[in-house]
Recover the amino acids of this structure.
């Protein structure tokens, strides 16, 4: 990887409560890593190529921790239903198309191009159930030099026939991808992706949890997005305390690094479990508006020390743009503030920026900020 | 004005409940007016210049019925307060700058350019209290060939000293603008603009209502945007039934064509009065989110037959983009649907499009749609 100095107006959030800004400074990158921010270029960096971005902002790449690649053709369409009928009417029929690799390649190339164009350099992505389509998506991400976790979706119940997997086959395909891709790239990695409890038998969830632990692979799924969904899970698993407890019983809730999308209707027990297991919440406010799901009480999560990032949730979300998601997150938090009699404080600008960069970026490691030892900043 | 044929994919909403689409058709414009939509160009139009927009949409220009021109430099800034402290902290100090015509010209040129760039061809605009600045804004709109109502703001109480007008002078300045501009342009017209009840003494409101009637000039103001504001109006005018009744007493509520922005906390009496007087509601969902004002029950207005359009409300709104306002309007209506136990139905896509075009456009006359006698459409 090359070394370079970028010159412009540098902005980032070292923590959620403040922006750090350096007007007309150099950001020096060595072997793909930020090594310092300087007013004048030091002698040792003088031979690095300089890219001038005068009067432009230099910010960390955006991090989108929840989106569905095969739903991209539905962007902005079919948002007249709530979650479950929306899945059955628009989403599952679209996802069924991805056994066609030619179709998949066309969509996935466009998606990756658009992520790059919108400044999203790291993302955590659902593919479809299809093994070959998932490998294709991972290869395209590797070619792009963008950072990503990509998950083959697992479903063996309550879906349309074309998407209903044989349980054993679903686990075998998942393991094959893990073995093939876990060390293939430093930037693109597999993530275990049970769609959500209603789509997965306990046998499948158990098998996926076992794989997660055996290979130390992270996990992503959905949690408490919609009131009908929450009721459905309760009726499917009356023996469990709540929705999160089902995942937790099968090692899919923080036993390895885990992200749960939405988290609008979490119980106190679910919040405690997320905090204890440091499960990430993917806050997807555009999607939560569009599917009439509701408003996540994001302040509760932050106050409790639960890690939070933002997700476009395409195509429940109508836009890949993380600034659009940041705006929606702030706006939603203001409505939640009113709704709670001004108890849960709205997100600030720096908090929204932090969530869209380091908040989600920390799931990858040191991603999403330009934090530096003080001595390096001149 | 010239005649022209535009070729492309034509979309508009003849009413709020449906899109009308014509793929790869000609839209023929004669002397600035749409005369028909045709699959093949008729003999009589064959000599018109044709502009090809293959695979592109041809839609009516967007109509923004509520924005504040002098607040444009604050776009996206200072959204951490509710209405009244927001006005005093960020907005009034910015508006006080517009006695400087050089500053005003810089801002207003940029605003008009951006309106054009975003496809907003008709807008209803607040200027500041400044007479010369308002005339400058009107002249710049005339030069731009965009359609606009522009109002000099009137304020003679409860504001910062730089913006507090002498009552007589405020009325004289307003009348001077009316006389000078009412017949100057067919596209750009004056509108009477008491900021809102708390900013205007009864003497000023009476004088403005008299001017409205005498010259048959439309009126715009704000209504029931924020709970503290509503309480304030109640305490200023305990003798009136409600906020709208104050305007109504002074002929500022539908006695001539009137727009009221926001209308979040309207009483049933206020809704009845709006319906009876056919007062337009300017729905500004981005602003209502950003200033933590609340969610307007837009479905109630539509069901009642109150005319409604959309407003960016820059800079309470953070974007001039009418598609952004359409998205926010749909999203807000979905949250209102949940809040009312699924009683007030969400806006559909065609309704949002209609509100952003013909809904507000009808305030100007036949603006915002391509409605045509059926025989003209081939």
């Amino acid at each position: 990887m090359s070394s370079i100095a970028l010159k412009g107006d540098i902005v980032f959030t070292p923590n959620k409560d403040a922006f750090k800004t350096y007007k007309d400074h150099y950001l020096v990158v060595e072997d793909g890593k930020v090594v310092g921010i300087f007013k004048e270029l030091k002698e040792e960096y003088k031979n690095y190529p300089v890219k001038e971005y005068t009067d432009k902002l230099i910010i960390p790449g955006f991090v989108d921790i929840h989106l569905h690649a095969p739903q991209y053709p539905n962007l902005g369409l079919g948002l007249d239903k709530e979650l479950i009928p929306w899945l059955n009417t628009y989403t599952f029929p679209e996802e069924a198309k991805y056994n066609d690799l030619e179709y998949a390649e066309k969509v996935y190339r466009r998606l990756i191009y658009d992520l790059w164009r919108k400044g999203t350099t790291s993302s955590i992505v659902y593919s479809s159930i299809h093994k070959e389509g998932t490998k294709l998506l991972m290869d395209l991400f590797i070619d792009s030099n963008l950072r990503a976790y990509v998950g083959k979706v697992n479903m063996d119940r309550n879906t349309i026939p074309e998407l209903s997997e044989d349980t054993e086959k679903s686990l075998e395909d998942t393991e094959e991808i893990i073995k093939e891709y876990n060390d293939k790239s430093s930037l693109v990695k597999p993530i275990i992706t049970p769609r959500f409890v209603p789509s997965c038998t306990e046998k499948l969830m158990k098998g996926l949890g076992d794989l997660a632990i055996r290979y130390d692979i992270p996990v992503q799924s959905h949690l408490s997005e919609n009131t009908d969904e929450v009721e459905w899970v309760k009726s499917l698993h009356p023996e469990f305390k709540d929705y999160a407890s089902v995942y937790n019983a099968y090692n899919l809730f923080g036993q390895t690094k885990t992200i749960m999308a939405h988290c609008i209707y979490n119980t106190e027990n679910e919040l405690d479990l997320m905090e204890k297991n440091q499960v990430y919440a993917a806050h997807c406010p555009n999607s939560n508006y569009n599917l009439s799901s509701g408003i996540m009480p994001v302040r509760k999560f932050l106050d409790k020390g639960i890690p939070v990032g933002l997700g476009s949730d395409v195509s429940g979300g109508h836009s890949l743009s993380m600034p659009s998601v940041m705006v929606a997150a702030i706006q939603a938090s203001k409505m939640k503030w009113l709704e709670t009699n001004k108890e849960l404080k709205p997100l600030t600008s720096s908090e929204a920026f932090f969530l869209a960069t380091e908040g989600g970026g920390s799931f990858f490691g040191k991603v999403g900020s330009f934090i530096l030892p003080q001595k390096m900043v001149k």
Q: What stands out?
A: Chain B has a mean pLDDT of 96. The longest helix of chain B spans residues 322-339. Chain B touches chain A at residues 79-80, 286, 289-290, 292, 294-295, 318, 327-328, 330-331, 334-335, 337-338, 346, 348-349 (CB under 8 Å).
